[in-house]
Amino acid sequence: MIGYISDNLLIPILDFFYGLVPSYGLAIVALTIVIRLALFPLSAGSIRSARRMKIAQPVMQKRQAEIKSRYSNNPQKQQEELGKLMSEFGSPLAGCLPLLVQMPILFALFATLRGSPFADVPYLVNLKILPSDQIAAVEPKPFKTAKHSIFITEKDHFPVIASLPGGTKIGTGDTVNINLQTLSGESYSKALTKYENGKKFQANWRVTKGEGLVKVNSDGTVNAISPGDATIEAKIPGLAAKSGFLFIKALGQVGFYVNGSINWDIAILVGGFGLTLLLSQTLSGQGMPANPQQSTANKITPIMITGMFLFFPLPAGVLLYMVIANIFQALQTFLLSKEALPDNLQKILDEQIAQQGKTSLATPQGVIQDTDRLPFEPKSKK
User: Fold this and answer.
1) Has residue 155 been placed in a domain?
2) Is 347 part of a structural domain of the chain?
3) DSSP string spanning 81-120?
4) pLDDT digits (tens, 9 = 90+) for 331-356
5) Pairing of strands 169-171, 121-130
6) What is the DSSP string of 322-365?
7) Are residues 273 and 309 in the same domain?
8) Which end of the chain has the lower number of beta carbons within 10 A, N or C?
9) What is the domain extent for residue 62?
10) Is residue 204 part of a domain?
């Protein structure tokens, strides 16, 4: 499904925007905004549901406990009352369905930006080299990799797969050819001859695992030498992998720290991701009663995720998409936080804020209450 969405929805949109503004950086920004606008109703439903559940959850938990206690001997009545409670406040799972519906599109968008034309595309084939006297007993099972749309020019691209008709198990001393081909079965090398710049997009072959077990030639021919497990990689250059945008040196560049030097454009993108994520989480609590534990989590989570992405191998183009998506999410959260709540939830929210105000006035300055403890902190001794 992800490949279908990418090939039939996202790449055509990408082609359209590149035709308007010949910049793949701007095309990423435009594609991200269009997809986020299209998914606005779904993501808005999730944000609304999460906002309402933050307010209703304490009351719902209290009333659920009361209903279960009161009707413990009458399961039918208990379910009836719990159903009425859900009708009044809504189900905590109501926000999950819109999120699940949009996930395939977001995954497809992520996958599209990790491949051609924004980055080099690797095809990995894992081989099992068997002794020559055992290979005769192995039943051949044809192997194919996932397809990737390969851009040869700004307007010309087609899906390519890697295949092994005889399967990935080969005997020592055997020679097999890993075929790069289009979906129609045409050789990738032959397809490239139709383009003047086709030679630039020939695949680069190498052994990434088991170098002493196999050898691979520049045309994808593999010679099996010794038994064991080996991995062959065919990498096709991305058309825009080395293209820059604003402060980004190359959209296909991967890594914050490479060969002893810092890629500051990657560092800026990762930092921008962390700041926009923090902004989005801060806005999600706007107008809500203060929650020390949630506030601490909102600060720690962006730091942890940002630190992870510093060393996670994502192309600069994908990081650009993530920053733009976070900005859009923050704006959406801000707008939805201004929406009027249903009367029953607004009444609960007003009571929560008023109660918190009274508690704050009654608490001496400098005294930490048990309710302010984090889950991993010990209780104070009195």
Assistant:
1) yes
2) yes
3) HHHHHHHHH--TTTTHHHHHHHHHHHHHHHHHHHSTTTS-
4) 888 887 776 666 666 666 666 666 76
5) parallel
6) HHHHHHHHHHHHHHHHTSPPPHHHHHHHHHHHHHHHHHHHHSPT
7) yes
8) C
9) 2-113
10) yes
